[in-house]
Write a structure and sequence with these properties.
Length: 311
């Protein structure tokens, strides 16, 4: 077993072999398996041929699993090294992909490059990586890494570290570094700066204060990025910033998109159209009722006239 491997696979079909043994023999076999995977070099008595026969297929399976583990571990180590080449030394990575240089040559070249002060304070020593990686590339582009060298590079805590920790520079993911950098840049931009920038664009102070309350209640941040988003949206659609801020305050919008204004206008136009149609229908009904009343009144007057003036 590998020194840093603390577990092994036991297969359900082993049950068939154990069923052929007595409880005492099964116990001996289990202890023998545990001693074997812990590299204690156990031996079975020569007269226990049944246990030996039962253990043989189990031993072969354990060896196959160990071989797969070692292969996967080495592949992971190589992929980590290649990934760091791609991240920090893209030119060397491209040459390696085109098979212009070997992985070993790329690592050695990378080790000779000067690091920036920031990188050197938080990265693994590149020179050590070049010394600890023992690899070759054949025509099938298969890379072999010496596992002992990798453990030497990782140090005494190799069991607790993974091969992913092999790096040429900072172990902080690029995305996190970018977010931290952005946060530091916007740290100096606060709520008062946010307000002043809107006032400078002729926004009404009361509207600004009302909108800031909306954003505070919504737990929205007051950053340069969020401000620029509103200003760019207004400039792109030739819409006054003052009216945008007023709309945000009135409708309790935490942000602003010009399409929202168009949607509001469309809704208002539709509502007005419905009101106009309704008013027109009401007038038609009124005229109809008026005509009906007039005809009735004319008929009544004609009837009275005929009654009062008989021939």
């Amino acid at each position: 077993m590998a020194e840093d491997k603390k577990s092994f696979l036991a297969y359900a079909d082993w049950k068939t072999q154990f069923n052929l043994l007595s409880n005492e023999e099964a116990g001996i076999l289990i202890k023998h398996i545990l001693s074997y995977v812990n590299d204690e070099n156990p031996t079975l008595p020569q007269d226990d041929r049944i246990i030996q026969i039962a253990f043989e297929p189990i031993k072969l399976q354990l060896k196959r699993d160990l071989k797969k583990y070692e292969s996967a571990k080495q592949d992971k180590a190589v992929n980590g090294i290649i990934g760091n080449l791609k991240r920090w030394h893209l030119d060397l990575y491209e040459k390696y992909i085109k098979k212009e240089i070997s992985l070993e040559e790329a690592v050695k070249i990378a080790s000779t490059r000067k690091e920036s002060p920031t990188d050197s304070s938080r990265s693994a020593p590149i020179a050590n990586i070049a010394d600890t990686v023992n690899d070759t590339v054949n025509v099938n582009d298969t890379v072999t890494v010496n596992d002992t060298d990798i453990n030497n590079f990782l140090g005494a805590d190799a069991e607790k570290k993974t091969v992913d920790n092999l790096c040429f520079r900072s172990s902080t993911p690029p995305k996190e570094e970018k977010e931290k950098s952005s946060a530091q840049k916007e740290k100096a931009f606060g709520k008062s700066d946010f307000k002043q920038a809107l006032l400078d664009r002729d926004a009404n102070e009361q509207h600004v204060d009302d909108w800031l309350k909306v954003r505070t209640a919504a737990k929205a941040s007051f950053t340069q990025t969020s401000l620029n988003k509103l200003l760019n949206e207004c400039d792109r659609n030739n819409y006054p910033v003052a009216r945008a801020v007023q709309a945000c305050a009135e409708y309790s919008w935490r942000g602003f998109e010009y399409q929202w204004i168009l949607n509001k206008q469309k809704y208002a136009a539709g509502k007005q159209s419905n009101t106009t149609n309704q008013s027109r229908q009401e007038r038609v009904e009124e005229v109809r009722e008026f005509r009906s009343d007039n005809r009735q009144a004319l008929a009544d007057r004609l009837s009275q006239y005929i009654t009062s003036n008989p021939e």
